[in-house]
Amino acid sequence: MTDASPLFRSFRIRNLTLANRIVMAPMTRSRSPGGFPNDANVAYYERRAAAGVGLILSEGTLTRRRGASNDADVPLFWGDQALAGWQRVIDAVHAAGGKMAPQLWHQGMSRKPGTGHFPDAPSDGPSGVTLMGKKIAEEPSEAEVLDMAQAYADAAGDAKRLGFDCIELHGAHAYLIDEFFWERTNQRTDRFGGSIEKRAEFAAETIRRCRAAVGELPIIIRISQWKSVDYAAKLAQTPEELERWVRVLVDAGVDIIHCSQRRLVEPEFPGIDGPKGLNLAGWVKKLSGLPTISVGSVGLTSEFTGAFKGEGSAAGKLDEAIERLDRGEFDLMAVGRALLQDPEWVNKVEQHRFDELRDYDARALQTYY
Ligand SMILES: Cc1cc2nc3c(=O)[nH]c(=O)nc-3n(C[C@H](O)[C@H](O)[C@H](O)COP(=O)(O)O)c2cc1C
């Protein structure tokens, strides 16, 4: 029988103690019309905090750059009305015994021009280049790039002021920060472009500015090899390249690296350590010396991209994920769809009620509970 106890050891980073190792993965739900967190959003997060999630990562929430999103139902993390809504969210989460970070998000060139809260605003990107590598706009000046970085830091400062427990920067999935990491979208020749170290400089600048804004609050960055338009993409082909990339983030002062994979049990460099080798979070932990979060199909048999095509997923075993965490391959385990489907998932796992874990039903995306 599965022993879930390794998931229920506490975890400490800086001044933050989490009761267990289970993190709710950030999931955009597009349920905040106008960009303002509302009663339904408060209840959604409060429910999961009350049911034992160790750390809740919010859905992606937008920085003040006007072109940050393609969806006017995605919450903002700036302005009095949105921040008042987030104040209610974090107060409710804390009252229920939970901890929470906002995931700070800017979609970069993934946003279609003419969409989102401010349809007339231009999209931001490192080089005015689309995800397919097509140049459609002028490259932004260094001053504009620095303002993009500062926009995350302004939101981070507000998160601290509101009482959030930490912050997460969305640096994955071909959104703005990841577009700086990626050669295809970053064609700059200044200090933000060129080698992998220079392509990581935007993230470093953002981390340093966030640190100035949040002081001791832990800073998480989410990264991924894969891109929304290219699941086979690999920013780092080798551990050496991965080390060069994450070293820049470590030196900038990040506390935790959240490594987005579609399947947690997939080895990152099987040619080196075999088919059961370290996953991305395992390699990043080994190379950076920092704690990491792993994620991907935990408790389910198929990966999340199917969710957007209306596919469900059968419940699956947790053993290998728990064994990897127990061995110290990574420190925290994020759970997406299983927690979207079932707010009680953590309690059921802790109480070894595995037969009550449900399949992920595609209709869960249409409801909001
Ligand atoms: C409906 C939905 C929305 C998502 N939105 C985000 C997001 O806003 N930010 C992000 O970093 N990842 C997002 N993801 C990816 C999840 O955080 C997670 O990495 C992915 O679902 C894999 O975990 P799972 O297999 O446990 O669902 C989303 C996934 C789903 C299913």
Explained architecture:
- The chain is an alpha/beta fold.
- It is built from 12 helices and 10 strands.
- Strands 3-4-5-6-7-8-9-10 form an 8-stranded parallel β-barrel, surrounded by 5 helices.
- Bound molecules: flavin mononucleotide.
- The site of flavin mononucleotide (FMN) has 23 residues, from β4 and α11.
Write the layout of secondary structure elements.
Layout: E1 11-13, E2 16-18, E3 22-24, H1 39-50, E4 55-62, H2 80-95, E5 100-105, H3 142-162, E6 167-171, H4 176-181, H5 196-199, H6 201-214, E7 219-224, H7 239-252, E8 256-260, H8 270-273, H9 280-288, E9 292-295, H10 319-326, E10 332-335, H11 337-341, H12 345-350
Parallel strand pairs: 3-4, 3-10, 4-5, 5-6, 6-7, 7-8, 8-9, 9-10
Antiparallel strand pairs: 1-2
Helix pairs in contact: 1-2, 3-6, 6-7, 7-9
Flavin mononucleotide (FMN) binds at residues 25-28, 59-60, 103, 170, 172, 222, 260, 295-298, 300, 304, 307, 335-338, 365.
Summarize the structure.
The chain has 369 residues and is of the alpha/beta class.
Entry keywords:
alpha/beta; eight-stranded parallel beta barrel; 10 strands; 13% strand; binds flavin mononucleotide
Q: With helices defined by DSSP (H or I, 4 residues minimum), what is the helix count? A: 12
User: Based on helices, strands and strand pairing, what is the structural class?
Assistant: alpha/beta
| Biggest beta sheet attributes | 8 strands, parallel, barrel
What best-fitting shape do the alpha-carbon axes yield?
Answer: globular
Taking strands numbered 1, 2, ... along the chain, how are they ordered across the largest sheet?
Answer: 3-4-5-6-7-8-9-10
Measured distance between first and last alpha carbons:
30 Å
Order of helices and strands: EEEHEHEHEHHHEHEHHEHEHH
Total strand count, please? 10
Overall radius of gyration: 19 Å
